[in-house]
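During the reporting period the student researcher (J.K.) took over the structure-prediction task from the postdoctoral fellow and processed the backlog of single-chain submissions. One of the processed entries is reproduced below for the supervisory committee.
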Amino acid sequence: MKMNIKIRMEMSLTTNQSTFSTAWSAPSNIALVKYWGKLAGDQIPANPSLSFTLENSRTLTSMVASESNQFSVDYLFAGQAQPSFQQKVIKVIEKWAREEPKLLNYSYQFNSSNSFPHSAGIASSASSMAALSLCLLSLCQKWNDKLDQEEAFIKQASHWARLGSGSAARSVFPKLAWWGSCSQVTGTSDKEAINLSSRLHPSFQEMNDSIIIIDSGEKSVSSRAGHALMDQHPYRELRFATAEKRALSTLSFLETGNWSEFEKIVEIEALELHSLMMTSEPSFILMKPDTLRAIDLLRAFRAETGTQICFTLDAGPNLHILYPKSEEARVLDFINSQLKPFAKSIIHDQLGNGPRRENQNV
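J.K. obtained the following structure tokens:
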């Protein structure tokens, strides 16, 4: 599938040739088979993961880079300073500069915002790091002609995004992305994700994701800490072997249009992620009572009506309800009538076409 991303010719230089500006938006993604646990190295996944790319849940980042003898970063989110995230941005640019040293010859101004509420419970690290990597790589095209090739540009964006946030590697691709080495899937790597959208069966080409925000509070345990707890987890090796098999099975069901098997495996995978949290040392529980109540209602609705609907979970309490667009009317009626009482808010999204270059007036 050809991605509609225009790069070099659409770059914007201000009248001062020592200043470069650009803007990109990148989507969030929801993993069907989860990345949970790392190997030695810099953001190396312990197992492959497979995800749907969303369309509406995006981070929009504008960048102005000015040539300077002093590398510096000024990062604003929604117009407000974010000192802790700014430090993270500085560190990740320094990592990228190991491959492109000229990046340190600039001072940077970033202005970033999310299309979804900050408290919505959607992980924004994937979309923010994907957007950031695309902005910096657009600058690198000034001196690196290899990045004029779309395939090389996106591959490097995935690689760089991973260094900022592992799952961000998947957010530079449309619809369906795979991240992690697997001998049975051509082109896979631990260093960047690959685009598998062309392998989606027609029945999976138009999927919706309605996100039920059960709790928008800060998680008691960060994803980074959760990954670290897998290092000594009693089910570590079994989990990693099972996850690879499950990713291959899920891909097969997506290719053949096998909804009944798809829904089973996606729900098992979501619940297993949370069981790993509950059986780590120390253990922690991120689901809430209303998460379980919503799951029970969804399963009862599916059994009664035969609707094609299933759920997955992020590393938190919030429910992602997946269903084909053809089921939209029935599912929205179910959500509004039965799940709305449990929701702080509801975000309706769908499979998306990946990142895009934006107008710079962010």
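The committee noted the following: The mean pLDDT is 92.
J.K. will present the remaining backlog at the next meeting.
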